[in-house]
User: What shape does this take?
Amino acid sequence: MAGLPVYFEQRLVGTIDVDKNGPGFTYDSSWIGLRGAFPVSTTMPARPDRIGPDIFLPWAANLLPENEQLRTLGQLLGMARSDVIGLLSAIGGDTAGALSIGQPGRTSSVQWRPVGTPDELEAILEDLPNKPFLVGEEGVSMSLAGAQSKLAVAVDEGGHICIPMNGSPSTHILKPDSPRLPGSVQNEAFCLTLARHMKIPTPNIATGKAGKRTFLLVKRYDRTDVGGRWRRLHQEDYCQALGIPPSAKYESNQTGIRGPTLKDMFEVTRRHLPATDIIRLLDMVVVNVLCCNTDAHAKNYSIMIRGNGASLAPIYDIMCGEVWSNVTKNFAQKIVGKSRGDDLTGRDWQRFARECGLNPRQVLDRVGALAKSAIAEAEAAASEVAAASPRGTWFQILWRPAPAATGAGAGAGAGAAAVGLGVPLCHGHCIAELLETKTKMDNAKIVPAANFLIRQN
Assistant: This one.
């Protein structure tokens, strides 16, 4: 095949080519010499030599969706699911991170197509399983990794949800409710809000409703508005940083490839990120345990990559699996061989610390502090999510800073705007459902937290 160009905005970063051994990547000489240029991956420093398929292909595969979404995409595009480069050439215009594959990326919002009505958005969400990422629509090219159905969208200054067209950047990820996981929107909103209350960096979120469908709207942390231009920021997930394909993202898997462990992730962090990010990664691991997030695999942790270094991305994709009977209760990554939070003791965390090159006493203290914080902040987080669902027109997202809560009355009512996007897109979805979910999550979350506090030896 002819070389497939890879861009950062209008600049050529390099070219993908395919030889008899498989696809590879070569940096463009102008990119290597550019001040501020970043590497595509921590595994691929910006050098003139071609990067072979053993390194490049797992990284590229992690830009694509998985499972049913990938199967459907392949059928619609007439391509095999294993044709990573062919699929990226069709849908890689707006990917996770800063790169656009096959066409230059824009920074303006001129090419955003507004979704006109709630009915139109509902129709898009209803058809999403059969038409992932709106594949086949003229001018639409986007890809998001993972197995969950989702859509990259933009939100304009008036708060309208838009479809990015012709290389324009998305600004948000829209995650619709799942019939298989009832209450998933409120579940994730609660967990992310709880994490933020615990002082863990999180993306801004809002909940919304279109017809019968609810959704979570997550502001992309790999996009930033600079004077009216939406700039892409580069990132990669820990599977990419470890050179592991998405099929092996779980520590325990049947692919024949050793899955990523937490020890592996701490080693990558120690090698490429500032020392402070080792503690941040520990915090994220502990929060996922406390929230019973059984899907916290290596693709759900990411690294921001710049020309002058790298840093840990905010936490994302937190959901409490304990509330659903059809979801495994085993963690995606084990803590010293144990898969369930209820089984962990202080000694286990100390062994985990030694395994990952951390200070056992400091880790124990940090886990205890976060466990107490989870218990203390759960009610306020639930109140904030409930209060952030006022009645109003579906497209009302107001870009405004969250007001500081002051005085005795600053509680549930003050939390509405603190979600970060102001007034969400909702006619007031069922708060009872949220509170029921929160009650179940309290039981799931506080049990491992309380157990830890009781059994620190």
Summary: Confidence is low (pLDDT under 50) at residues 390-436, 453-457. Residues 236-457 form one domain.
